[in-house]
Amino acid sequence: MRYTKHFAIALVAVAALLLATGCRDSRTIPMAGGRPQITIMVGGLEKVIYLPAMLTEKLGFFEQNDIDVKLMGEQSGATAETTLLTGDVQGVIGFYDHTIDLQAKDQCIKSVVQFSDVPGEVELVSKADAAQIKSVRDLRGKNLGVTSLGSSTDFLTQALTGQEGMSTADYNRVKVGAGQTFIAGMNHNGIDAGMTTDPTVAQMVKSGDASILVDMRNEAGTRAALGGLYPATSLYMRCETVESHPDIVQKVVTSFVQTLRWIKRHSPEEIAAKMPPQYANAGKDLYVRSVRDSIGMFNGDGLMKAEGAQNVLTILGKYSRNVAPVKDRIRLADTYTTRFVEEALRTNQ
User: Fold this and answer.
1) Using only C-alpha atoms, what is the Rg of the chain?
2) What angle do CA 31, 36, 42 make, to 5 degrees?
3) How far apart are CA 121 and CA 214, in angstroms?
4) Hey, which of 73, 74, 87, 240 has its CA 20 to 30 A from 176?
5) CA dihedral over 149, 153, 155, 157, signed as positive or negative
6) Do the strands 91-95 and 35-42 form a parallel or antiparallel pair, or are they unpaired?
7) Which residues of 184-196 are buried (b: 16+ CB within 10 A; e: fewer)?
8) Pick from 165, 188, 216: which residue ends a domain?
9) What is the pTM of this model?
10) How many domains does the chain have?
11) Among residues 344, 341, 340, 304, which one has the least CA distance to residue 97?
12) Does 125 lie in the same domain as 106?
């Protein structure tokens, strides 16, 4: 009941903000010196699952496509989507599942480039609980870390445990964020297990503070855990923005497609060398390892696979309290488009 009340209050707040801002991003995009000014919120700039965002900037592809892009970091995809709805940013790099979740709330958000076909997420078990937790079924009654309630890690946690017949009444979901806050939660008995990404995974496994229970950084692990693909990292925008500014959206998408193709042609060492040095604050070798372990998640072309989108809807239709009641009226065709990626691929052979 408490969660439902807080969610209702949040929806009212978003609605009020939408009225106050006049959905400004759907009507105009700032220009400076004849170049579009785009702001994109990223659900954790230092996370390897979102690596193409900063890499695109470092490779100069935004500038090459005559567009200025400002990247802003935010640890929770759920918070980032609120910023998109209020019109404070033009795009979000986060998980595709938010487009379906928001359609269930009568908001139209569309993925315009799909970076990955798998989540890139790992369920870690703390060293203190490793002897008791050997499989997903052992998570019953445990404290499980998620980025935040309503986040993609929350959906995925429910999907994993749901496969073993559990509901959220069978364990405690704990908001621990990502990075250092996740590590602190696991090392100080705040959580028994939790879902996170590289470079946190590489850091905790190397230190011996955690072990891997479920690995969804590759297709085989994702299919085993979720019964199919689960398209995750994407750039999504308000539908009004996509339809009102196709030329600008094309510039952004083309920049990211060029990066995805660049990733496939370069080694983890070469990729890591392009990233900001502070991303490797736990050590250069450890950061290279985290890139190597996760880089296979990126699809290389930016295209959405219809099979994956359907599996996301199937999972949310079972475990999302927003999607489940309206799953039969969700229109997947309105949650993503491949037209900009197809054009980018055609013109960048």
Assistant:
1) 19
2) 120
3) 8
4) 87
5) negative
6) parallel
7) ebbbeebbbbbbb
8) 216
9) 0.88
10) 2
11) 304
12) no
